[in-house]
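Batch manifest, entry 17 of 40.
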Amino acid sequence: MTSQQRRYYSPFGPSVPPLPVRPEYYDRALELVNYFRKEGNAPFVEMGRIPAAQRHADKCLAIGMVSQWDPEGLKPYMRYSLAGGYQASTAFMWGKPEPEGITDLELMIEDGVTWIFETMGNRRMVLDSLYRKANIGIAWNKHNFMLVVELEGDYVEFDSLPAVANHVLAFAGRVKNGVRIQSEADLSADLWYDPLPKPATVGQLLRVNAYDYGAIIASLRRPPPAGQYWLEDWTSLTVERHTAPEDFPSNSPVPSNPVEVQALVQEAYHRNERPRRVQVDYPLLTCSRWDVSAEGFAVAADIGSVRRESGPGVYRLNLWAPMEGRDGSVNVAGYAMFVS
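Output type: structure tokens
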């Protein structure tokens, strides 16, 4: 793509090469994250090692705008798993154009972290004590700045990552850091589905600002004790579905000035406030293997029925377990599998 073409597609000014980010700027971003978490009575987080946040910041800089989705149609949870992550996680991002030129990178970082923590809709999540690490992405050039902060837990270690082979989903590992599995009933798992990602244009990305995890398609359960059986094989859940880039034409126009850009962004925020609520009926799948104890877990289940029903797509496995200091079960792991 030529510079002239990039100027047309980028709503935030001409494309110029990215500038380097020294390590101390990442340290400063983490320091600010922990400052705000301390102010909110949340525990400190340490620097994570999953590169999804940096990769996404780089992509946002390349197209000249910040977006939850990326040009490949990937959502944050998909990028996180593709980069090797499998903990419970959530991502926040902020971008700012500076037509006159950026002169103080640290000030941009401070503005970005402040916005993330002081935006009302974010506060409950960014201050959640569940998170123990922060993956930070910073990208900038003369005219644009992009910041991505992805918070993650640290409660599961997989001996074998979740994978599907011959219609059988299998995974094994152990829990840590205050997660308690005292009986086989303490672990639970569910499976969610999204269609395979589709490439998105800047015009489409400008019209969305939220994402969901697809729809739940199955819950995994342990085999019943000998001589007993489960009474129910189906249940239901109401999920919220957000607008996706493919809901808009690929040739959706890109505004040529910041005022029009901001108007599109505001429209996207209003759509986010009114997600579709859909009731989903889904099966309770009895696992062929459910070895769960304080020492670890090894689980296998035939998901052929839901795979045939849903088809190729992104299947996200969520694990739930009790944790010290928290009521009920919490989401301790989430991993997206791309199944063709």
